[in-house]
From TrEMBL:
Species of origin: Bosea thiooxidans
Gene3D superfamilies: P-loop containing nucleotide triphosphate hydrolases
Domain of life: Bacteria
Domain ABC transporter: from-to ranges: 19-253
Protein's UniProt name: Nitrate/sulfonate/bicarbonate ABC transporter ATP-binding protein
Keywords, in A-Z order: ATP-binding, Nucleotide-binding, Transport
Length: 272
């Protein structure tokens, strides 16, 4: 297992990248330059973390990839899709799922109905939508909780429902904005494991925003380290540890070493 670094250019990926970010900057109306000149290629099927301190533009970048807000300059494109330039438009129904830090569930609807929402919006017939939502809930470990309301579920379970809802359309890419930040450590570890298993099985591209070095190393094949003021990419690290990763990996010397290297990079990025 090694951790390699290429700080000068984005990592090349096998085949056509799923998403290409070229010279993307974002300045908000109040003058804040949230993201400056970011270049990234997101390889199909990769697990990528965006790691950085608060305010380095991770969320802004993730939201732009999702089409939630356009870059001020530069382009975001989906090379595999015709006319897929996303520089100025919204995601236009693109094949993606988004998980926010807050599970954002409908409190008046049970878990099954929450997961069914995207299918309902797409006009999928009720019986089929129910079957697909139930299957997705089972995949995130919530078989038997279909009829439970959000108030009856723990924080971790609510996040599982949110992930099921994001994946129920079987998107090519799952964008996650610090989804486990509010959870206790044990729940967080369990969700990390289950997310990896899901990714391994379903093979979507995963982009995971975090400020935890430990979480980014545990999950990712690649860590994009960002710095703040203005938000920019400082390093692009490749984590070449085998999957499946489990408790044994989490307690290994190799994991500790990888965390040390990533942590040093992060400290350099924030100027310490
Ligand atoms: N809508 C907005 N209007 C003005 N400034 C904004 C807006 N959204 C974000 N910012 C600013 O842009 C910068 C980057 O914010 P962003 O939320 O992308 O960072 P982040 O790395 O995700 O931070 P955190 O880890 O705290 O969520 C910050 O300085 C933030 O205050």
């Amino acid at each position: 297992m090694t951790l390699t670094m290429d700080e000068t250019k984005p990592q090349s990926t096998a085949g056509i990248p799923l998403v290409t970010v070229r010279h993307v900057s974002k300045r908000f109306a109040n003058g804040t330059l949230a993201v400056r000149d970011v270049d990234l290629e997101l390889g199909a099927g990769q697990f990528i973390s965006l790691l950085g301190p608060s305010g380095c533009g991770k969320s802004t970048l993730l939201r732009m990839i999702a089409g939630l807000g356009a870059p001020t300059s530069g382009t975001i494109s989906w090379p595999g899709e015709q006319g897929a330039d996303q520089g100025t438009a919204g995601h236009g129904g693109r094949d993606l799922g988004f998980v926010f830090q807050d599970p954002t569930l409908m409190p008046w609807a049970n878990a099954l109905a929450n997961v069914m929402l995207p299918l309902k919006l797409k006009g999928v017939p009720r019986a089929e939508a129910e079957a697909r939502a139930a299957e997705m809930l089972a995949l995130v470990g919530l078989k038997g909780f279909e009829k439970s309301y959000p108030r009856e579920l723990s924080g971790g379970m609510k996040m599982r429902v949110s992930i099921a809802r994001a994946l129920v359309m079987r998107p090519k890419i799952l964008l996650m904005d610090e989804p486990f930040a509010a959870l206790d450590e044990i729940t967080r570890h369990r969700l990390n494991d289950d997310l990896l298993e899901l990714w391994w099985r379903e093979r979507f591209t995963a982009v995971f925003v975090t400020h935890s070095v430990f979480e980014s190393v545990y999950l990712s094949q690649r860590i994009v380290v960002m710095a703040a003021r203005p938000g920019r990419v400082m390093a692009d690290l490749s984590v070449e540890a085998d999957y499946p990763r489990d408790e044994l990996f989490r307690t290994s010397g190799e994991y500790a070493h990888l965390c040390r290297v990533a942590s040093t990079k992060l400290k350099e990025a924030i100027g310490r």
